Amino acid sequence: MSASKTKKPRSVQSYIDETPFWEDGTTVSDSLITGIQKRIWVLATAGKFFEGMVVFMTGVAIPLLHQDFGLTAAQKGIVGAAPLFGILIGATALGGLADTFGRKRMFIAEMILFVLFLLGVAFSPGYWTFVIFLFGVGTALGCDYPTAHVVISESIPSRVRGRLVLGAFAFQAVGALFGTVLGFFILKVYPEPDAWRWMYGSVLPLGVVIVFLRFFIPESAHWLVSQHRHDDACRALGKLLQRNPSYPTEIILKMPKKPHKHKKKKATYADLFSRKNRRATILAAIPWFLQDLGTYGIGIFTPTILATMIGAKSAEHNLAAIIHDDVLAAKGSAILDILLIVGIVCAVFLVDKIGRIRLQIFGFLGCAVGLLLAALSLHPDGSTNLFLIFVGFMLFNFMTNIGPNAMTYLIAGEVFPTKLRGKGAGFAASFAKIGAVTTAFLFPVLLNQIGTTNLLYILIGTSIIGAGVTAWFGIETKGINLESLEDPEPEDPTPPSKDNPVVEAMALKSET
């Protein structure tokens, strides 16, 4: 293969998107993904894997924590809500810092925090220290929401961005399944109330490895350009696109005009609500909020619901019976979680064909149907149709991941310009987690107060509203170049200096 050479300054994304062609001019259907781009993608999957594992494993741990710490219904709700409230805080408080300090620094910092707080969770001496450390774990995972998304989005070709971002997001479902399966096996091997400590502690070694590996990726060239760091951007882009044989052999980046100091204005969260960005903010935040009401409530408390249904058939309520019911519920929850993976796999294949908005609307409506089936499985006399509730929850898990659970995450990282991308995605994630925290805290309380059926009907309504908001404010980002979202700025007429060491080195490499 060969590719045309040009010495005209070009944008970062044009280098990333460049498609090689054969000598007769036939264009290759996809641009090649380099080894560094693959490594970035793999490392970005870790945050979503850990989130799914920790948050959903908490559902298995709650009955054990109840035995170990003597939890009330409200305290169970606090345990379920703690990591989600942490995500709410971390996505905005820490995720937005990626726009200030860089994508790579926050990518590393979030994982260090995750490991330290998880260590505290595993060795918590009491209920409140457990909750505080679990909140800290959520804060670190919250930072990962915008940071991991933009690390991927700003490193890969536009035409495969949707597939790769969702491919990384799929590891949330893999983590959810792995967490429930791990909880099941730990309970089988060690059927004691403090088995939850082994569940959380088992995650630590992998977290340490991920921290180490994240030091060896380049900074986002998009972000470096936005900071007017031309030489660093060329160096980072050269490392990102490192191939054998070497291509491109010369990088000359188009730079935005550097504003005068007195005109320089930093992007703030208030910019998300300007006339230009308001529609994107509504689309990114509100459907995600509505989706999280159902996904986290159902996801965390599926073992609790199933354990209640299983336990209702037995009069025994001793420790052995509770652990036995929790094991069966974990097994049932793991089976349901498989549908999360099936849904996200379908989303990966369809997102760049059907588009984000259509899939999100379709998914919301499918979630409503699944929840309706689950609601109809609960009879007025207190009996239940276990088959129907499984079918309803399986359909819900499949539709949420082919639609809103995946698409809201993807859209939030695509509809904002570079200078606001971290803040916009972080705000949307934080706003969404208000819904997650609300449902996680209130779910066990409302199960007692209004019953499972009424609670499911409420979630049916929020799913339908989510479909309507998506249709009204939809912005389709399928295949678009993210640089098209930038504010138009006059280009810097001064070409890059010939003394630039990166350009000089690449030119020398081209000559040899």
From TrEMBL:
Q: Which residue intervals define the domain Major facilitator superfamily (MFS) profile in the entry?
A: 40-478
Region forming the signal peptide: none
Q: Which GO terms describe its molecular function?
A: transmembrane transporter activity
Which Gene Ontology terms of cellular component type are present? membrane
User: From which domain of life does this come?
Assistant: Bacteria
Cross-referenced PROSITE patterns, in alphabetical order?
Answer: MFS (PS50850)
Primary subcellular site in the record, as a coarse category: membrane
The record ties this protein, via SUPFAM superfamilies, to:
MFS general substrate transporter (SSF103473)
- Per the UniProt record, which residue ranges are transmembrane? 40-65, 77-95, 107-124, 130-152, 164-186, 198-217, 282-312, 332-350, 362-380, 386-412, 424-443, 455-475
- Has UniProt tagged this entry with the keyword Transmembrane helix? yes
Claim: Magnesium is one of the keywords in the record = no
What keywords would UniProt list here? Membrane, Transmembrane, Transmembrane helix, Transport
Q: Which Pfam families match?
A: Sugar_tr (PF00083)
Q: Which InterPro entries match?
A: MFS_dom, MFS_sugar_transport-like, MFS_trans_sf
Q: Where does it localize?
A: Membrane
Q: How does it sit in the membrane?
A: Multi-pass membrane protein
Family statement? Belongs to the major facilitator superfamily. Sugar transporter (TC 2.A.1.1) family.
Q: What is the designated name of this protein?
A: MFS transporter
Q: Which organism is it from?
A: Puniceicoccus vermicola
Organism classification: Bacteria, Pseudomonadati, Verrucomicrobiota, Opitutia, Puniceicoccales
